[in-house]
Amino acid sequence: MATGDKSGELIIWETSTGAVLERWMHSEPVSQVSWNPVLPYLAYSVANTVYLVQPKHLQGTPWQETDVPNAKWVAWTVKSDRITIALKKDITNLVWHPKGDYLATVAAKETVSS
User: Fold this and answer.
1) Rounded to two decimals, what is the model's pTM?
2) Which of 19, 50, 71, 84 gets the most CB atoms within 10 Å of its CB?
């Protein structure tokens, strides 16, 4: 089980004992947390950034560190233990496709001044 809170703390818990397995701290609130339904990946968002992690106790093959070309609206960073995806707007929703092969995000609505 994974939880995120307004203090910026994300915790992965052992459900049978309640023990903390892993913990990450961020300077802004964790807004969304979602397990991949098929693979041992956890996606969570902090402000405008999505993090994909492979928890150590479930970890399989680490991701290959690589340079990913950035687009106008997104910047990717791939490390062996984490993929970071920075978007232009804050994330308001994060969900995996039931087959686990796609991740969708919804970003905050742009404010329009009149």
Assistant:
1) 0.83
2) 50
Termini Cα distance of the chain: 44
Region 38-61 average pLDDT: 86
- Name residue, tokens 């106790």: 57
Per-residue pLDDT band at 12 (split at 50, 70, 90): very high
Average pLDDT over residues 31-54: 92
- Which pLDDT band, with edges at 50, 70 and 90, does 67 fall under? low
- Rounded distance between C-alpha atoms, residue 108 and residue 52, angstroms: 20
Cβ distance 57 to 15 under 8 Å?
Answer: no
3-state secondary structure the chain: CEEECCCCEEEEECCCCCCEEEEEECCCCEEEEEECCCCCCEEEEECCEEEEECCHHHCCCCCCCECCCCCCCEEEEECCCEEEEEECCCEEEEEECCCCCCEEEEECCCCCCC
Structure tokens at 52: 């994909």
